[in-house]
Design a protein that fits this description.
The chain has 827 residues and is α+β, with helices and mostly antiparallel strands. 22% of the residues lie in helices and 25% in strands. Helix 4 packs antiparallel against helix 6 (206-214), helix 4 (133-153) crosses helix 11 and helix 7 runs parallel beside helix 9 (304-314).
Length: 827
């Protein structure tokens, strides 16, 4: 792994040329992948720093300075070794020393072995609000058996403590009013509402625990949430009062059936002072062993973050034993409180012993280290290898289900990302746990200096005129140069100092020989192409540019990027000067239409950098204020009719096709088609209607808009408005789109109904005439018939042509008497 890292750093150094130009050994070894050569021959001060592979080829091994990062344990007591009176050592090594070169890292393993189950200090914290009355009765009835049951079923090394809480005694959370308390408690013998009472410190005596329960009475408050966070904070910070054992597993069991108050809830009742995370427990009186929280009505509730910090410092684990109806409120607390557990509590707390046992087993099988804080110069990564896993878990320091005598391996990777200002500085990373008192430390030193900085006299390498220092000559007075070859009254260090600028290129940055942009020759910097200045401090890049042209272009000016100041030096001979952005883009000659013009902007405006600002923009515009934009200068008149009317009719009739657009623009008119012509005087600024949006460009001062009406070839009404557009500096037409009512329409009923009516009338008249003529003809025929009848001399009975329709035949024998014969023989 080490070889891979070295090769990787070397490749990076070669790829980026990071080693080139480093003129001192210290600068060189602070560059990852670089090494320094002390060898004199074939080297200059700028070529001694090379990649490790290059120097292996060019420099003798014993003259190559290439510090190697490493780490090793300094104190490494074995597990279960007695050290300083402590019986268990469960973390090792206890102290590791590391030396780091800039950009290199070291991996340090810390091993935890679980030796024994931890002694248990159990603090039972109970909610004494009225709704917990049944829980208190149950707990009191079995109090004497709780500790023995825990010893029998959980661990025999257990001690207990007891405390209780209600809430802050300020309305609307709670009140000390005895009348309200009597009404709220009914037949229960309630005690006055309080914040937190610590009733029993850590003790192995189960009888004292039973007595504390017997002395406890229920209380009451008004709102639903309780003040359990106040109690938890005091239990965590008042260690002298609680009397936690040093090596015990400290567990607080909070039993409640209600939600919790937290930070800022106190602001609702005027408690603006935040919780100070300090102990404020005092005895209720000199005769009592009960402590009470004195800041109940003075400080706000603690935040979850404050509890996390207090629990971490005091190494306290928390079991939230809550009723089922508030479980959702508490279930996410383990995400922010280290090693916390949330469990269901029976309505009468009858499962408390089983609950404590299950939670204790979960806690004791869990092990974690606190996430350490890395020094500013160190980049820290970590991971863990748990007993039941074959792979590393990244970015975590916790394992579950750890049993005796399993081991957990934690790996910390430390990398130096900068060298401290104090060259002798030693940093320490302290790593501990919220569960055990063991602490391990990692001491870090930095490989940021070269041992060869101590001067050594050399007769040959330094021309007999100086001392050798990391392969460089420190010349005597009167001599200078890389090997003291120059005659001067200054030493080589002074000559190098003449080539070394005291001012860094950027604020807070390093200084170097000729700023690594040239070489020093007897106290004078010979700059590489593209750089200039006494110390090669100026570059011809880095200045403001536009479209890739630095300073606006080489003909406009040159870039002088000296130190952290980028300045364009403009070509004043050609008239160029800087604009507000520092670019050489300003030239008064650009404000003349012809270079020979005597006046700028045609005498109608001011030249601002390279553009004209016309004095009367209502009349004159254009690059050089030589374009008249007033209606009076327009070739067409802004009146109804003429070319304007032709344009409007075209737009109306062809729905604004490209043909009309070209025709209108040829005469200098732009247009817009709208559903209805707007009344611009009624348009508000916030109105997003297309017509009102177009109205905003009108200049009613120069040209009041005109509403016009005409008709097209189809006798359709064409409505349009003539305006002056202040952006286009020209006439602008609003043409109303064709509407149904614009054109005259053909009403078929007007034609059909009269035609049909005429046909019917003519038909009726015809019938009347026919009837009249028919009656006359019939009358005439009748009269003729009657006339002919009158002329006849016979009647119907005498008509010789008439023959009766019947014949009578008589039987002569039928009649016996004469009188019986009929009168007529034939009928």
């Amino acid at each position: 792994m080490r070889l891979f890292l070295v090769i990787l750093l070397q490749c990076l150094a070669l790829a980026h040329g990071a080693c080139v130009g480093k003129s001192t050994c210290e600068e060189c070894i602070r560059t990852p992948g670089c090494s320094w050569c002390e060898q004199i021959s074939n080297f200059t001060e700028s070529s001694r720093c090379q990649s490790i592979l290059e120097n292996e080829k060019m420099c003798s091994t014993n003259l190559t300075i290439n510090p190697i990062s490493y780490s090793k344990p300094e104190i490494n007591h074995m597990f279960n070794t007695t050290v300083n009176g402590l019986n268990q050592v469960q973390l090792k090594p206890q102290l590791t020393k590391a030396k780091l070169r800039l950009g290199e890292s070291q991996k340090i393993n810390i091993t935890f072995r679980k030796l024994v189950d931890y002694p248990l200090d159990l603090y039972y914290l109970m909610d004494l609000s009225q709704s917990m009355h049944d829980d208190l009765q149950m707990l009191t009835s079995v109090g004497s058996t709780i500790v023995p049951n825990i010893r029998a079923r959980v661990t025999d090394n257990v001690q207990v403590a007891f405390g209780s809480f209600v809430d802050k005694t300020i309305l609307p959370f709670a009140t000390k009013d005895p009348n309200w308390l009597a009404a709220a408690c009914g037949t229960s013998n309630c005690q006055t509402t309080f914040g937190f009472h610590h009733q029993l410190s850590i003790t192995p005596d189960s009888n004292k625990f039973q007595q504390a329960l017997n002395d406890t009475r229920i209380s009451a408050n008004i709102d639903r949430p309780e003040g359990g966070f106040d109690a938890l904070m005091q239990i965590a910070v008042c260690q002298d009062v609680i009397k936690w054992r040093k090596e015990s597993l400290r567990v607080v069991v909070l039993s409640t059936d209600a939600a919790f108050h937290q930070a800022l809830d106190g602001a609702l009742i005027g408690l603006l002072k935040p919780n100070d995370m300090s102990c404020h427990l005092e005895k209720i009186n000199n005769e009592s062993e009960v402590y009470h929280y004195t800041e109940t009505v003075a400080q706000d509730y603690p935040s979850i973050g404050q509890l996390r910090e207090a629990f971490s410092q005091s190494k306290i684990q928390t079991i939230f034993a809550v009723h089922r109806d508030v479980y959702e409120v508490y279930k996410d607390l383990p995400k922010v409180l280290p090693n916390a557990v949330v469990q269901y509590l029976a309505n009468d707390s009858s499962n408390i012993v089983n609950l404590i046992g299950e939670s204790y087993n979960a806690i004791r099988s869990r092990f974690s280290l606190t996430i350490p804080t890395a020094p500013p110069s160190i980049d820290l990564k970590y991971r863990v290898l748990c007993p039941d896993s074959a792979t590393w878990a990244e970015n975590t320091l916790q394992c579950n289900n750890v049993s005796i005598p399993q081991e957990v391996v934690f790996q910390f990777e430390i990398k130096a990302k900068s060298c401290p200002t104090n060259k002798t500085q030693v940093d320490t990373i302290t790593i501990g746990s919220d569960i055990i008192p063991d602490v391990v430390k990692i001491g870090i030193e930095y490989l940021c200096e070269c041992d060869c900085e101590r001067p050594l006299f050399s007769d040959n390498e330094c021309s007999g005129q100086g001392n050798l220092k990391c392969g460089l000559c420190d010349c005597f007075n009167g001599r200078g140069g890389s090997v003291c070859q120059c005659e001067t009254n200054k030493t080589n260090s002074e000559l190098i100092g003449q080539c070394t600028d005291t001012q860094p290129l950027v604020s807070g940055g390093p200084t170097s020989l000729c700023h690594e942009r040239g070489k020093c020759d007897c106290g004078e910097c010979i700059c590489e192409p593209g750089f200039s200045g006494k110390f090669c401090e100026c570059a011809n890049t880095g200045c403001p540019s536009i479209d890739g042209a630095v300073c606006g272009g080489s003909s406009n000016g040159e870039c002088h990027h000296c130190y952290d100041n980028q300045t364009c030096i403009c070509n004043a001979a050609s008239g160029w000067y800087q604009n507000v952005g520092g670019l050489c883009l300003c030239n008064d000659n650009l404000c003349k239409a012809v270079s020979t013009d005597e006046q700028l902007c045609a005498g109608r405006g001011d030249c601002n950098c390279h553009s004209c600002s016309c004095s009367n923009s209502k009349v004159w515009a254009g690059t050089h204020c030589d374009t008249c934009v007033h209606p009076s200068c327009n070739k067409i008149e802004g009146t109804c009719g003429g070319d304007v009317e032709k344009c409007a009719i075209c737009v109306y009739g062809t729905q604004g096709t490209t043909l009309c657009q070209q025709e209108c623009q040829d005469i200098g008119i732009n247009f817009i088609r709208l559903g209805l012509l707007p009344d611009c005087s009624l348009c508000e600024n916030y109105n997003l209607d297309a017509g009102c949006m177009a109205c905003r460009q009108n200049d009613e001062v120069i040209f009041p808009s005109k509403d016009c009406n005409t008709t097209d070839a189809n006798n359709c009404a064409v409505k349009y408005k003539i305006t002056w557009n202040k952006d286009l500096n020209g006439y602008y037409l609003f043409v109303q789109q064709s509407q149904t009512e614009d054109c005259p329409t053909f009403d078929y009923l007007v034609v059909v109904l009269p035609a049909v009516g005429g046909v019917i009338v003519l038909g009726i008249i015809g019938l009347i005439v026919w009837k009249f003529l028919k009656n006359r003809w019939d009358r005439r025929e009748w009269e003729k018939f009657q006339s002919e009848l009158d002329k006849q001399k016979w009647t119907q009975g005498d008509n010789p042509l008439h023959e009766r329709a019947t014949t009578r035949i008589e039987n002569p024998k039928f009649y016996e008497k004469e009188e019986d014969k009929p009168l007529y023989q034939n009928m």
